[in-house]
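[step 3/7] fold_predict: job queued, chain A
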Amino acid sequence: MTTQSVEARAAVPAPSASRHAAGFWIVAAAFAVEMAFSSAPTPLWTLYRQRDHFSTMMVTVAFAAYAVGVVVSLFLAGHVSDWLGRRRVLLPAILLQAVAAVLFLVWPDLPGLVVARVVSGLSVGMATATATAHLAELGAASRPNASPNRPVLVATAANLGGIGLGPLVAGVLVRYVDGKLTVPFAVFLVLLIVSAVALALVPETVAIERGRTYRPQRVAVPSTARARYFAVGGAAFALFAILGLFTSVAPAFLAAIGQSSPIVAGLAAFLVFGGAAVAQIALGRLPLARQLAVGFTLTAVGVVVLAAGVLSSSSPAFLAGGLVAGAGAGSLLKGSLGTAATLAPAGARGEAIAGIFLAGYVGLALPILGIGFATGLGVSLAASLTGLAVLVLAIMAVASATLRRHPATA
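[step 4/7] structure written:
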């Protein structure tokens, strides 16, 4: 009896480890909800256009507002959890996303949509790096002997998987409920509030540094191997343009060729970001050069198939191209970030990675805005999307050739 009691006590994790283990999954779930909400409006843009009769250009403006919010927050607040604490930044980020949900509900006109998207972007910029770091620290505290890749895989699944699930969930809700422009946001508002309550119980993993002088996140280009750095920055620009396409104007194209179901619009985004998540997880252990090579190849093939789908008005080809391009983008993003980190000195890696994200979010906004302005001038959406495909292929060709001309040093 005594032996059984000792064995039972030994089998129970220490309270701290158990609390950190629970906190790990709470943060993962909250991170997934955060990212899912950021992309949830994707299948709703067509409904807003039908209701308010605004143009494709207005959709792209609302979408670009999100990218602006992310960039501003990424450089002003994305790094402050290093000395303010993870939970103390992540919890306000989730609450800020809840504010965005409220704005979608109470101010559904175009100005309100733009403001809500900016607020949503601000939240994502605060949450992304913070949640990823928090998962790494909670994972190390709860399972010190486990592989450090485990938190990275969970963070990837929550981030890209969440972005993929958001439009799919919203699309299903829109298909089967009456309040098509309110119920999805109400559902996510509840999930965000529940996430915030749960996050309040998660252990903090960073001690507050009193008296630290605040400064925005800096962007630094490594002084050596700048050609390689700018090449992967260009790759980030191109791949984010493809990801942005599927969370902005892709539903309008699908509707134009007869696929107006919000579930199809949500499925398109789910395929792209799901493919990116699976590729990052499956190919993440390849050498950086191989990750980049696979990423360039898959993205190029996917973009070609996607363009063929646009020119032939084929939704299966468009969706298949998105899936392949998404997988390539996932591998290419991981390889680009890893390359930037290896090119920079140890003390400037965060600043070098910030530069890659800056290039990426510029790529998320500018090409999509270009599509909006082109359609406003009378260019067809199909022609605009084909032009985007050509631009992406050209940038990737230059980036790939530059990397071949300037190979990594041993």
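[step 5/7] annotate
The chain has a mean pLDDT of 93.
The longest helix spans residues 110-142.
exit 0
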